[in-house]
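Hi all, long-time lurker, first post. I run a small reading group and we've been trying to get comfortable going from sequence to structure in the token notation. Rather than ask abstract questions, I figured I'd post a concrete chain and ask someone more experienced to write out its structure so we can walk through it together at our next meeting. Sequence below, copied exactly:
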Amino acid sequence: MFGTSWLTVRLTGAHLNPLLAWPEIAGIGVLTGTGFTVCLIFADLSYDNTAHLTQAKSAALLHSASASLVAALILSRRNTLHRRLRQQTAQPR
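-- Answer (accepted) --
Happy to help. Here is the structure in token form:
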């Protein structure tokens, strides 16, 4: 998702919404890496051997959990930044 968004902006002259930055796109891109259900479907269709199927399902679960954790870290960091910026702009000068 991140790569497609970046290419679209670079190749077509499209622009990101000013309220959106590349780190948010990266966080959402990582979150889309959690395609756990699709991995399980492919594993079921690909392997007849129970041991191979178990390994494939375990790898899919590990990948999904890792992608979720990385996305949560990226997006929570961005959320903290946005919260801080909102507080700064809300304070009277």
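A couple of things your group might point at:
The mean pLDDT is 84.
The two ends are 40 Å apart (CA to CA).
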